[in-house]
Every structure is written in C-alpha cells, then in structure tokens.
Amino acid sequence: MSHRLPQGGRLIDRRKPRTFRFNNRAMRGMKGDTLASALLASDQMLVGRSFKYHRPRGIVASGAEEPNALVNLGTGDRFEPNQRATTTELFDGLVAKSQNHFPSLDFDIGVVNDALSKFLSAGFYYKMFIHPRPFWKHVYEPFIRQSAGLGKAPDAEARDVDTYEHMYAHVDVLVVGGGVAGLQEARAAGEAGKEVLLIEQTAHWGGRAPVDGGSVGGGPVDKWVDETVAALAEMPNVRMRLRMMGAGVYDHSYALGYERVSDHQPGNDAPRHRLWRIRATEIVTATGAIERPLSFAGNDIPGVMLASAVRDYVVNYGVTPGRRVAIATNNDDAYRTALALADAGVGVPVIVDARSEGGPLAEAARDRGIRVEFGMGVGRLLGGKRVTGVGICRMDSDGSALHEIACDAVAMSGGWSPVVHLWSHCGGKLNWNETRAHFAPDPARAPTGADGQAFVRAAGAASGALTLPEILDGAEDWEEAPLSPVWQMPAQAEKALQGKSWLDFQNDVKVSDVRLAAREGYESVEHTKRYTTLGMATDQGKLSNINGLAVLADALHKDIPAVGTTTFRPPYTPISMGAIAGEARGALFQPIRRTPMHDWHDAHGADWEPVGAWRRPYAFVQNGEDVHDAVMREVTNTRQNLGLLDASTLGKLIVKGPDAGRFLDMMYTNMMSTLKPGRCRYGLMCSENGFLIDDGVVARIDDETFLCHTTTGGADRIHGHMEDWLQCEWWDWKVWVVNATEQFAQVGVVGPNARKVLEKLGGMEVSADALPFMAWADGEIGGFRARVYRISFSGELSYEIAVDAGQGQAFWDALMEAGEEFGVMPYGTEALHIMRAEKGFIMIGDETDGTVIPQDLGLNWAISKKKEDYLGKRAQERDHMTDPDRWQLVGLETLDGSVLPDGAYAVEAGWNDNDQRRVQGRVTSTYHSPTLGRGIAMGLVRHGPDRMGEVLDFPVPGGTTVRAKIVDPVFYDREGEKQNV
Amino acid sequence: MSEAVTALGGASFNGLVAVRERPLTGMITIRADLSDKAVAGAVGSVTGLDMPGTGRIVEGEGCAIAWMSPDEALVFCDYAEAWDKVAVLQGALAECHALVANVSDARAVFELDGAAARDVLAKLTPADLRDGAFAPGTMRRTRLAQVAAAVWPTEAGTIRIVCFRSVADYVMQLLSVAADPDAPVGWHG
Amino acid sequence: MLTLKCPCCGVMTDETELHAEGEAHLKRFGPGSSDEDFTGYLFQRENPKGIHFERWRHAYGCGKYFHAARCTVTLEVFGTYPAQTLEPPQEIKDAISAKRPGWSWREMSN
C-alpha cells in the first residue's frame, strides 16, 4: 500500500512532524508535505466519491490539475469545501473530511447510482426528469438539489473571518510560471533592464526539472535553478512571488494574479488571499504542461495515478503510492518514473508500452531488470476500492484476452499537453502538433492588445517544447523516441470496456458517453461538453479535455484539429470569492454617503432609508413609537408647529455663462431664461425620448448664473447629462457647470412657526415682503452665512436654507435650540412624501416610471409654448404621446378611508387578448394622511380628470376589491394659502 | 465660522503608514479655459502662482493650484480665506468666461505618511504609482475602490488625497484597512 | 479590461475609471424632423463586427467625454480624440486605413 519511504523527499523536513485529522482520524505528516502526500504516506489513497456514480476516488495527480482529492477543509468560520489536497500545504492542526458520500467514505449508499449507471449515462437528465410533469417540483427537483454538488456548503450562520485585499501593479514583463523556462525568461528580461514580476503558483521554484532531471552546463539542473533564483533575487528590477497563480489574461495586457498569502499558516492576521490586478506590457506564459491519463477500463480505480505524479511523490515527498507499481505508457517520459521508483527501492512488476519500441530511457529501465512489454496495453484493471492487479493485452486486440499481473498502483502516461489556458483566455489560437499529439500555442496567432500587436508569448513546455535541451541552452537530457497517440486502450476495446474507461474522473464521464453524444448528434465539441459534462467539473477538464475530444474526433471520423478545443475561460483554477471581493465587504461593501448631520440623526432615532448611495432618515422614532407612529407625528407637528428636514442630499448645480439661459431652456421644459435674479422656478427635465427624468427648483442668481436643484438621485446623473450636451453637442456655447451639491448643508425649516424661529436667530430679513414665496436671498442667520430659498414642498410656510457643509451640524443645532419653544421636531422622508402628496405634488420615481410625460401629470403649465425646442419636445409630438387615451394624474380616495396598496390597478369590464382583465388606471403613491385622517393616493387613470367622482375597483392581494373615488389630486389647502403667508 | 468642522473631526489611524484626516482646507474650483493667457494671468495675480500644466500641481506659500481638466483648476488656500478669495478671483476673472465656486466644504482631505504609502494606495487605485509616473508635481484623478478621488505625492514624501465629503467615512475606513499593519506587500520602493 | 488614453488629460486610464457612453457622432434630430429621422436618432445604433466609433467619459478622472475608434472584435484601439467634432479627425481615419484598408462605418470609409 502507499507509504513513506525510509529516506528521500527533497521538499520535506523529516525532523518537523505535523499532525492533522482526516475523517476524524489523527494522522502525521512532515513539514513540506501537501495534504495529499501526507495522506499517501499514511496509506490513505481513497479520498472521495465521484459526482454522479459515487465511485471510489483516489489521488491521481500531484498539483493543481488534481480531479479527485477534493476535501472539506477546516471547521467553523474557516470551513471551505472542494479544496484540493494536492495544493493544500500541510500545517499543524489541519482538519479535512472527504466529500460526497453517506454515511461514510468507505461505505457509501450513493454507490447505488453506479449499479444503475446504464440508466444514468450522459444526458440522462434531459430524458429522465421530464414526465410526468407534476413530478418536477416535488420529486425530481428536491432529489437533484440534494444530490448535486460535491463539497458541503458552509453553514448559513458562518462568516468568513479572514481578510482579503487587492493590489494593482504595473510592470513591463509578467512571467507566469517559476519553472526553468520562466526563470530563464525572467532573467533575460531583467538583464534587459525591464521591470519584471515572476510568479509561481506552488511554494517552490524550479517546476518539474528537479524531479525529471537533466543537466545544464555540465551540472545537475537543480543547481542551475538555485543559481538562477539567487541571481534574480539580486536584481532590483525583478520581483518574484511564490504561491501566486496566474488566474487569467484579459484585454489590453491585463492579468489577474491570485496570491495565497497565508493559506499555509491559517489563523494569523495577515490577509488570506491577495488578488493582483496587473497591467503588463508583455506577458510570458511559462505555465508548463500537464500529463494525460490513458483511457483503459478501470483507470479510475484508486491507485491509478499519473506517471509524473508518482515520481513527484517519490522524489519530492519521499512517498510511494504502492509496493508494486505497474506502469502503462505510450511514450518515453514515463520511464523516468520507473527509474525513480527503482532508485527508491520500490518494485515495478511491469511496464506496458503501447508502442512497438522505445528509446534510451526504456533501455535504461530494462537494464535495471524491469520487465517491459511493447505492443501491449492495459485491457482492464482489477480491484474495487483499490487496484489489485493489471490485466494486460495486445494493443491491437479487443481487450478480452488478458494476462494478469498483481500490483497495488498503476502509473499511467498518455503524453503531455502544454498548459495553454492563459494563452487562450484572450484569443490566442492553437495548432495541433501531430508528432507530439498535443495542442500548442500558434505564435503567429497570439492574443493582441490595444495596438493590435501580440502581448503574450509562451515559453518552455507551455509552448510545446517538452524537453530540457529545447528550453535551456547547454542543457542535456535523455533522447526520447516519439510517442504513439493512444486515445483508447486497447485500440479496439469492446463496448463493455469503453463503458469503464474514464475520461473525466470528477464528473464521471466515460469514453462510451462521448461516443453516445456523437451518435445522438452532439457533434460540436462545445455541445458534447455540455451534454456529457466532460470538463465541467471544478478541475475544468485539465486531465480530460484532450482525451475527450480525441474520442469525439474518432467517433465523428474527423481529425482532432477539426474538432478543436472548447473555450478556455479564467480563472485557471478556482479562486476564492473573498479574493474577488477584496476589501468590499461589510461596512466597505459600498460607499455610503452621509450628510453633515448624519451622526445627529443616528443619535436621535433615525430609521435609515437608502436613497441612491445616501442614507436619509425615513423617520425619527422616539421612545415607545413604531415607525408609522413617528411618521404621523412628524406630519402633524410640521403642519401645526415647526419641522426641520435635512435636504442636503438634493443636487445643487451651478450653471454660469452668457449662454446659460439658452442652455437651461433646452434642458428644461420651462422657459428658464426669463427667470429674474432673486427668483425661483420649479422645472421639469425630460429625456430626448420625451419622458420625465428629473425635477427641481431653479434659482436665478444673477444675469449669467443659475442654481439648479435636482432630486437626490439625480445630482450626479443630471450633472453628467448637462456636461454631455455641453461637451458633445453645443460645444460652442459658453456655459460652465459646477456640481456644488456637497458644498452646502441644506435644511428645510417648515411650518407655521418657520419665520418665528428664523427671526429669533436673527440676521437677514425673512418677512413675507422681504422674502416672498419663490424668492431667494443671500445673507446671515444666527451668525451663519446662508442662502435662503423660499420654496415649499409641503405646502406650509417653508424656507430651505443652505450653509457651508462644515457648519451644517452647528446650524442644525442652533435651529433645534431656538426652535424648542416653537415645538420643533425633525422629520424624515416619509413625512416629506405624505405632505407633498397631500398637496398633489408629484415625486420623480413615484408618479414617473420612465414612461410618463409631463402632460400625463397635469403639468402642461410647466411646458413652455414659446420655445421651439427643448430636450424631449420632438418626442412629445409622436402619436403615442399625444394620444388622448394616455392615463392622466388624479387623486384617489377609498370609500372606506383605508390606504390603497401601492401599485394596485383599477380594472374595467372585459378581458384582453392575453386573458387578463382590462385595466384603466394604477396607483402611483399612497399613504395614510394624518392631516385628513384617511388614506389618500395619487394615480394615473384613463381620462381621469374628466371623471371626477367616479368610483373605480382595485382588486388587491387576498382576493378582495377596494373601491376608490376619483378626486382632485390636491387634498389639502387647494388655494395654496399656507405656503404664501 | 468658528463652528466649522471637518467631516471626521481629524480622524487618524496608525498602521503600515499613518493615515490622517487633514484640517479644514480651502479649495476653490475655477471653470475657465486654462490655456487662455487672460485666465492664467488673473489667477496668477491672485495666487502668485503659474497655471499648472496638464495633470500637474503647483505649490507655493500657503497656496497651490492643481490642474483638474483643460477647463477646470482647483485652488488650495487657507480655509478661513476661501470665500474672500472666491470674491477676489471672481473680480479678477470678470472679463473672462469663468465660474469660481467655493468647494472647501464639499471635500475631505487625507494624508498617508510613511514609507509604505504607495503600497497602501496601490491596493485601492489602478493608477500607475511608479516613481516615474507619480512623482511630486503630479496630480492624478482616479478612483479609490468605489469612489472618485484626487491623489498626489508631496515633496515631503507623503501622499495627499481629496475625496467628496459625503464619503469621508468610507475613504477613512478604506485607507485604514489598506494600512492594516498585518498586510504589508513590499512592492513599491 | 480596456485601457484608453484620455485625449483631454493624457492619462492612460483603466476601463474602471471610465463610463461607456454609446455610439459617437450621433446626429440629433429635433422639432420639424420626420418620424423616421427622429426614431433613427433615438433608437438606431450601429452594431458592427469591426471598426466602431464610440463615446467614453473619464468619469473617475477629468470628467471629459471623448471618442475612441476601436475594433469590436480584437479590441484594437486606433486612437482616441476629443468629442468636439462631427467626424473622426483625419489622422484617426488614416490610422484605421493603415491597418484595415477598405473599412467603412455608417457613411464614413477608407
């Protein structure tokens, strides 16, 4: 069985043991182990169950390409499913559990799927879960939800306790991959004076070379690696990072690096992951190559591993997967594994080589006394939860005649595929290399950037150069005889064997599934992928894609390059959600905009409402009240005494220039240029499509200067809108715009006592004569420099006062203190909404929804008849806009005084062509009015203004119907006397 | 006037660098054609400074001018003098097509002080902060995470940041998290 | 992740500092125009597989709108230029012609 060898393991420190738990069993490993090597050292080959059939799964690889060894890692708030044991560095106290089985890894009832596999072949769910239709919701879907997925989802109450961050970096050259090719590239670029970043996803430099051997300049290659690393460390213009994966290559030379800062030392306070957002003039992908499995029956039984992975475990970790390791290959490289095993004293009972002859490496293996069988393949493997033997047969047979040889592990090699993912992410194309049976980057069709030039270059094995002498000058290594492509072993394997030859170990896709897809007409490789789910698991097909498409090509009688690969998409391997979010969590998830009086509101019972990115008080809830009580109190107090409103969030745009008036005449439906200095005018803005987009009061400051108020949500939008037209259409007009929204805190002082409190504070004249309704003036109040607008959204006597934002809180405090004798109370947005509704004033976003024009809202008076043009005028001339059947604004009063539900529709007789009831109106705003003691609403109704007094029916949820009468939308103070005092 | 406050009352944090909200700062926006000699002359007569070139900031005694766009400049001055300076600038620019506005209160100003200042900033902005691209005299408008900001390196080696007042709290938290003493990057310098 | 050089402030700016603002060189039709011209102005947009002229705003920067000539397939950028023009400047057109002879876009061409 698998175990730790008595010596060896270049990456481990045998003096430093580490303890961990797997499936509640205490185990021991060494510093430098991965979880996978430590499991193997403890004879734990079985690590999980496959997705569909729940077949036993063992460790297959040694790196990021691992499809099977996925574990639930950690506990509590650090729990994370689907972590690869091969890329998890072992630390003291690590806790891991295997996935996708019940009740246990060894005994899993899910294996019944395997017995039913005939019915669960590729695409079965497209056929099986259709009838009877009613079964979907209560039988099929719950079952599928329960069985889908591999790892366990974290508990709903768990919260990620780690921190994550981003880092933006600009470099000349980004080299991805710290193997010999990457090291060489980094050195060359560094010596050429470039700013270089070299990144490597594992914790070690050198890549495969220290395991695979070879020499450079007469010395062993790992000496070359050490020297090069040391030289790079000396160069100030070269920076190097380990544990950092190149996650993706994107447009215009942008790349993401995923740095696992402290996964290997969890629990410290450093960020767990750092996402590097890199802009590099040139990107070099030195990302190596991944070995392909061989497709033979039983190739998924635990104990079957990639040949290179076997020697990785032996050389790097001093671990062997078995005592008798058979080898199956179609190439010379796998013989390196035989030699490594022999050096470690591990038995190799046979090497099965599909070719008729091999090269010097095969000779060397034979010279060591290892049995080599040419022209043979694996017919089937013996064993259930563990390999017990290999049945070999002639390659040119149907696999039925077997010669059995006992073994407890099999090292397989089907050849090597360059890692072309990063090259392909941004449009790099591939060529099929017939000799080496792999896709490699086509340098003539590299990804191109903003200048149309290539910005990515592949180097080393990633470019298709698989041998050391091809990559490094002065390097020497074994000569290798050509491989023989083998996509199915043996070549004419009978159907039953194809049904046991696995392509995708994680998603359970077999050779027979791909052939089935081809037979059923899924001939595009993209269709085959989705139909069979080949390559769709968390390993993204790193071991299965090429083998799968080769089988498809064979089934379709096409060449492999004609079938092609599926699209490679970032990230190269899964990255954490935390890394993507970076700092943007909790309080930093989104910026919250606060007014200068925010903290005061918070301390005084504010019930917060989001308005765009701002927070505004909905109401100020006092002791014993609920929110509704507070709102009612605020409305009543403002109408009877004195209310204060924080109106700081409304937009304030300064518009100045000789053409300012002309410009605003285009922006608004009103004639703004005739507004006199010292006066205010309520204006409407429409889009070019004619619909209302914003409203607000405009003040004429002087001959050339206006101040335009916008809605809270409109400030930045309307500023951009104005700049758009000034920069891109009327660029010869002389107009400047400044967004002064945040310069001023603005307070609404509202109610019958409004003038009294201002006069008590003293300063400028605020009498009815000095400052009449719809006038404004600059001056001083209570020692504060102020601009006062005599405007009213509530219908009460009202002053909106702007002071410098830095004095906003002090001003508010002064008003609260001086207003105490007048019954001052702050009020929030809901009281604001109710009061304006009582007065029949529209609200952008309630009465408007992007399809409403001023003419629908009885606002024809705000549309200048004298203007030839304004934004939206032409649109408002279109048939649909002048249709008399357009719904018009009215007030609505329920017969029983209740509050109409928001969005309720008024029905009329009959049904439309879609079998829906005909409708003739809808509710746009609705409230309980404490002033009137009843529910009030505004709505849009067909021919509404002509139907005063008519009663409409509004069906509401629950099945009942509310009846409401059409009335004038101004419910209170129709003559507008109160605001005029 | 004595009752004016900054957005955060002088908040500070010590980590990889010192993060400090700066005291009340006078800031005046000028919209005008900056390439117009009359404009540059008028502004120069009030500030004593030359108009900065594209993307630059010019500093003087208690005063500075930053280039914001081809037709927008930001004048820094004493907070208490800002309104008066607005009036003086308006007077000087009366013959030009110009808009002068006090924006002192609309902004919050921060400073990063420490050797790791560029690293801290680099966690938040895609702007190129390498020595060549971001040397004293540079004024760079960009974003910090999700908000607009202007950033510039000072002769003293610190980095100053201006953002909108309403998001001062967000920016302070952002800078403090980025300056977490347990999160050094070791990238710049 | 695009980068574009803002022609107004000279900064090579990240896509995340920009807002995309749709097709460039739209011709406004107002009162007095035919329904066809007007609805074309509101709703008809080019959707080319290739050369395109589009507007961007340097939102987290100088705030200016500018135009870019860009290939929608390869994302090659032939140049950026200020927005105060009815059609792309000659040097932009020349830059495109040098790489994509025979190009055309709306009524403009090589």
From TrEMBL, chain A:
GO terms for molecular function: sarcosine oxidase activity. Coiled coil: none annotated. Residues 172-425 form the FAD/NAD(P)-binding domain. InterPro entries: 2Fe-2S-bd_N, FAD/NAD-bd_sf, FAD/NAD-binding_dom, GcvT/YgfZ/DmdA, GcvT/YgfZ_C, GcvT_C, GCVT_N, Sarcosine_oxidase_asu. Residues 499-582 form the SoxA A3 domain. The keyword Zinc does not apply. Transmembrane segments: none annotated. NCBIfam families: soxA. Belongs to the GcvT family. This is Sarcosine oxidase subunit alpha. It comes from Pseudaestuariivita atlantica. The lineage of its organism: Bacteria, Pseudomonadati, Pseudomonadota, Alphaproteobacteria, Rhodobacterales.
Automatic annotation (TrEMBL), chain B:
SUPFAM superfamilies: Folate-binding domain. Pfam families: SoxG. It comes from the Bacteria. This is Sarcosine oxidase subunit gamma. It comes from Pseudaestuariivita atlantica.
TrEMBL record, chain C:
GO terms for biological process: tetrahydrofolate metabolic process. It holds the Pfam family SoxD. It comes from the Bacteria. This is Sarcosine oxidase subunit delta. Gene3D superfamilies: Folate-binding superfamily. It comes from Pseudaestuariivita atlantica. The lineage of its organism: Bacteria, Pseudomonadati, Pseudomonadota, Alphaproteobacteria, Rhodobacterales. One of its GO terms (molecular function) is sarcosine oxidase activity. InterPro entries: SoxD, SoxD_sf.
